[in-house]
Design brief:
Length: 467
């Protein structure tokens, strides 16, 4: 039998079940705790009201010459009388002589004589100067009372003011019933809202699920419009960004296959053609020497392309294997100037660098990346090559610019992709390798057309510690 797990249910049902469980537990807790809390509140306030009523009535207690209690006016405020009459609730009073004789009373319902005698006994057993709060349980009836020994011009008496607990229970039942009548519809409405809300939350997630399935089928031209500012909206925008990046990567892979096929096909065909000619004796003497030279040249070209591809793959996949150390970019640029200036002697180098520009990096990889960029710049420069370097915050920023023709606008966004090259480009791998190296160092490289010519800007963290 399959074990039930909440997490295996749809999200909408999980939300609904959890909300219904929460509200049910809350309802049960209120159903049990509310009557108890109301009862405690009523008991506590009954004693307070009895005490207030006691002191108010004590001011109106008078006796005739036969020590008989004269009528006592209703002392409770009018609004309180109306409130209590609605709930059939009252404060009853009995006045006793010191010997236990009942001198008079004010009550809505006559209580049994035995209950009256027990109330007197409780009152008489208490110290005379202190107001007593007590409870008398008489089987079917319970009383909450306050009592005190009083004195009227030298005539001692006991006054007991009491209320029946049965009346409190009736009030409690009425209030609890009214509470349940209000709470039950609210609970039902909250469940209906939970059903709607669970669908409201899960619906966009189902849309994202369908989109993921379409992306898995390489269907990228699907708009994702979700006008939400919450976490689901952020997730949708992330999905849309991922979709666009996957689309771009898919197109890049198609271009890669097309371009690498072209780059490898040309030297292979040349090698095959000249080898076949030499084998069949078509080329003799100087022509044979020329054919062998072409075969050697094309094989070196083929070797260079394959070597760059292997290097690019290594940089992109095993960047954590970099050999980090202290690298002075200012010194590196001086050495690269001496090494590469012979490629285009007509170009003047202008270096605007601090005396020292130290960073943590893999010097060999950075040197390879800068060589690829500088060879590209020297290929298009007319007369000047400008290199500037500075530290901005926690990053070293190197800019390399030339005064050559601007980069084609259509090529600019794809300049650092594999086998994307301009009209005078070679294999189209140099800038892709440079980008991979800087990204492996958690840095960036961007290209733009300035008024004076193309400019490449590289940003490298000064204190890079590896991935």
């Amino acid at each position: 039998m399959t074990k039930f797990r909440l997490k295996n249910l749809p999200l909408s049902r999980q939300i609904l079940i959890l909300f219904m469980l929460l509200t049910t537990v809350l309802g049960i807790g209120l159903g049990i705790g509310y009557p108890f809390a109301v009862k405690q509140y009523l008991v506590s306030n009954t004693y307070s009201l009895l005490e207030d009523e006691f002191y108010t009535l004590s001011e109106h207690i008078t006796f005739n010459e036969h020590n008989e209690l004269l009528p006592v006016p209703a002392a409770a405020p009018y609004f309180l009388q109306l409130l209590l009459s609605r709930y059939e609730y009252s404060f009853d009073m009995i006045v006793y002589a010191e010997n236990g004789k009942e001198l008079g009373s004010r009550s809505t319902e006559r209580i049994p004589l035995s209950d009256s005698r027990e109330l007197y006994a409780r009152a008489a057993s208490h110290p005379g100067n202190v107001l007593q709060h007590g409870t008398l349980d008489r089987g079917d009836e319970s009383y909450l009372f306050v009592s005190k020994r009083m004195d009227y011009h030298g005539f001692p008496y006991y006054m007991v003011l009491f209320s029946k607990e049965r009346e409190l229970n009736q009030i409690n039942s009425i209030l609890t019933r009214q509470f349940l009548l209000i709470f039950s519809p609210l609970l039902l409405v909250s469940w209906l809202l939970a059903v709607w809300f669970s669908g409201y939350l899960s619906r966009p997630l189902r849309i994202l699920e369908d989109l993921c399935k379409k992306i898995a089928r390489r269907q990228f031209d699907i708009p994702l419009a979700m006008d939400r500012g919450d976490e689901i909206g952020q997730l949708a925008r992330s999905f849309d960004s991922m979709k666009n990046q996957l689309k771009e990567y898919d197109e890049s892979q198609r271009h890669f296959i097309q371009n690498i096929s072209h780059e490898l096909k040309t030297p292979i065909m040349a090698i095959q053609g000249y080898t076949q000619g030499l084998r069949e004796g078509v080329f003799q003497g100087p022509q044979a020497e020329k054919g062998l030279a072409i075969i050697m040249e094309e094989s070196k070209r083929l070797e260079k392309v394959v070597g760059q591809l292997l290097y690019l793959t290594k940089i992109e996949s095993v960047s954590q294997m970099m050999q980090l150390g202290r690298v002075d970019l200012a010194e590196m640029m001086q050495l690269l100037k001496q090494r590469l200036s012979v490629l285009n002697p007509n170009v003047e180098w202008e270096l605007n660098l601090p005396p020292s520009l130290l960073i943590e990096a893999d010097g060999e990889q950075l040197s390879t990346a800068f060589v690829n960029i500088l060879e590209n710049q020297l290929r298009y420069a007319r007369s000047r090559l400008m290199i500037t370097g500075r530290v901005i915050g926690q990053n070293a920023v190197i800019s390399i610019a030339n005064d050559g023709p601007p980069i084609e606008e259509a090529l600019l966004p794809h300049l650092f992709q594999r086998f994307r090259k301009g009209k005078s480009g070679k294999h189209g791998l140099g800038l892709a390798i440079a980008r991979a190296v800087f990204e492996a160092h958690k840095g960036t490289i961007v290209a733009r057309n300035d008024p004076d010519g193309p400019c490449f800007t590289m940003t490298i963290p000064v204190g890079f510690k590896g991935s």
